[in-house]
Design brief:
mainly alpha, 6 helices, about 0% strand, elongated
Length: about 160
Amino acid sequence: MLSAGTSVAYLRTGKLKYDTISVSVTEVAVVFLFIGLTTGMIWARIIWGIWWTWDARLTSAFVCVLLYGGYLILRNGIADPTQRAKISAAFNLFAFADVPIVWYSIRFWRTQHPQPMTLPPDMWSALLWNWLTLILLMTIFLLLRLRQEEARRDIDGLRRLAHA
């Protein structure tokens, strides 16, 4: 959601800082989603006896990885920073349309995945500690990626000055 929000902010204001946030958030999110799909396949093999099934949740999450992976590839194919930011922001909003489908797919369709259930009270502390840990890890990755993207933008500016 943050990536889509910063894409909208970039399209409204034209400030490259929003593009920097958008690409950084997207890269970190793609890594986390890819890890989720990969570990889910391992879990599925143990529990269900299959590595992959083309159910709605898995397929929509896989499409999400492909869309945002395409977003990252698209960015590398455009040299001009302003044009890259504008086209990437538009594509990011297109890709974001799959996010609600992934989120609600377990409720929309009966799939291999069990339906949502209530977590037992004694499991809440483990869940909250895991969320906190993952959010902190994600924040560290995001801050590192933001710094790298800002350095890239500075290098792009120096290159333009050198060619001028």
